[in-house]
Each structure stands twice: as structure tokens, then as C-alpha cells.
Amino acid sequence: MLKLTVRRLFYSLITLLIIAVVVFVAVELLPGDTATAYLGREATPQRLASLRAELGLDRPAIERFARWFAGALRGDFGMSLARDKPVVDLIGVRLRNSLILGLSAALIGIPLALGLGIIAGLTRDRAPDLWISTAALIAMTLPEFVTATFLILVFSISLQLFPAVTVVPANAPILDLLPNLVLPIVTLTLIMVAHILRMVRTSVIDVMTSDYVQMAILSGVPYRRVVLRHALPNALLPAISITALTIGWLLGGLVIIEVVFNFPGLGTLLLDAIHTRDIPLVQGIALATAGVYVVVNLGADVLTLMLNPRLRTLRTA
């Protein structure tokens, strides 16, 4: 178990390194460079040369990547050009807000998705399954911004229960952010639940129609015992990987949701950094987001190994 965990950790670090290379190369391929974007119309040959030397842009790309990635591993992403502050400080408070939003949606959405998926799978082609599957299909079909706009029209404009957009600053206390979290959390939860419950439903149906479950039922084992002790543990194992992938999607969906609700998270900060061509900030946000995604997937792999001894034995062999 320890050897497999170390191996997964090594693969995760390799993945993070590859993502860092992709981010760095993508930024390098953009027209101009950081100095040109920062100086704008005030860019003269003398000022460009001076700023490039100050930022280390006159050094070879491999050396600049090595310095940047080594600093990132220590938590040093450089200085924001547009804000003249350390990138890690700017990311820190915004990451807090995005994690609050994402984790809240996950804590609500994952148990709800598992419960609805189990109900739908156990009542296949009956009324509960049809209602749940139809609602999930609608939630999956609608884009995030459409769902968010609909919620704003109903709960902010018509009923005036929650604010339509966030007006508090990014570093506001968590209690001040709470009223602004409700609609974004509901939006993310609806989409998350729709994706996960459909996979759980399919897994439950596959397990319930398997030979060993059918044999247990024909042998007179109580249906409730078959479901709780045999079917559900095996059906929910695939849901761990699906949940990890959904959380990875959630990181990308946060950008759209945060922009619609003007929520002060990493998504709005990223778009602002792109607009101002703040390259160090864009690189820092991209690598921080990738790091969260890698950690989530690593946790899902380790949890799957812990809960599935058969899979652990096969991988060891």
C-alpha cells in the first residue's frame, strides 16, 4: 500500500511538472513578452531592455523555467506586474474564497448525488428513476451561465432573497461572504449532482444485475441486506474516481460562476490578470489550480486503493 501511494505521488509530481511546462510554453508563445505587455505604449528600446534585464527575460528560456518552477515549489510565484505585490499573496485570499465556494458545493452535492443516484439505480425505469434522471439531464444540458442567470432572475430580482452579485472585497471576513455564496453554491451543486448521480445510477444498475447479486437474491438473502452489504459498496467505488474528475471540472466551472456572480475568487482574478497581461499572475494561478487538481486526483486514487483490497492486490501483482 505504501509503495503504491509513493508511486502515485511520483506520478502526480510528474504530472504537475508537465503542466508547468505547458503553462510556461503557452505564455512564451504569446505575442510580445511580459516587458512589452507591462510597459504598453511607454515601451521604448531602452526601457524594454532595462525591464527585461530586471525580470530576467534576457536569460535562456530553460533557465527562466527552472528558476520559476523551483520558486513555485517553494511557494514563490514572483511579483505581480499590474499590482506590484507578491503573486502568492494575491492568490492566497482568492484561493480561500474559491475553496470555500467549491468545498461547500462538494460537501452538499456529493452526498446528494450519491443518494439520488442510488435511488435512481434501485428504482430503474420506475417513477423515482424517471423524475431524477430527467432532472439530471436538464441540469447537465444547461450551461453554467444559463443556470446562474435563471437563479439570479428568480431569487435575486423576483424574490429578492439573495444578492445578485458580490460587492464585498476579496479579503472580507467569511461571515460577510456567506450571503453571496448561496446562489453560486446552488449553481455548482446542481451541475455537480447531475454528473455524479448518472454515473452512480449506472454503477448501481450494473452491480444489481450482476450474477452474484442475483444469486444472493434467489438464495433468499433479504433484499435490504443484499443492497447494503453487497451491492452498494461495490457500486460506490467507481464513484470515487468520477467524483474526483467532477471536482476537477468544478475548478474550471468556477471561472464562469465567479464571473457571473462577480465573486472574488481565482476565476475573476485570472480573467483580470489576462486582461492586464499580468503574466506572472496568470502563471501562478494556472499552476496553483493544477496543483489542487493533482492533489484531488491523488487523494481519490489512494482512497480507492484503501477501500478496494482486490484492486490493491492486482496492482501489487
Report on this structure.
The protein is mostly helical and about 325 residues long. It has two domains: about 1-75, no CATH class; about 95-275, Orthogonal Bundle (MetI-like fold), CATH 1.10.3720.10. The protein has helices spanning about 1-30, 35-40, 45-55, 60-75, 85-120, 125-140, 145-160, 175-210, 210-220, 225-260, 265-275, 280-305, 310-315. Helix 11 runs antiparallel to helix 12 (about 280-305). The radius of gyration is 24 Å and the shape is globular. The model is unreliable at about 310-315 (pLDDT under 50).
Give me the count of strands.
0
Average pLDDT metric: 80
Low-confidence stretches: 312-317
CATH C-level of the largest domain? Mainly Alpha
Summarize the structure.
This protein has 317 residues and is an all-alpha fold.
List the helices and strands and how they pair.
Elements (H helix, E strand, L loop, with lengths): L1 H27 L5 H6 L5 H11 L5 H13 L13 H36 L4 H15 L2 H15 L15 H35 L2 H8 L4 H39 L4 H10 L3 H29 L1 H8 L1
Helix pairs in contact: 1-12, 5-6, 5-8, 5-10, 5-12, 6-8, 7-8, 7-10, 8-10, 10-11, 10-12, 11-12
Descriptive labels:
MetI-like fold; disordered C terminus; single chain; 317 residues; 79% helix; mainly alpha
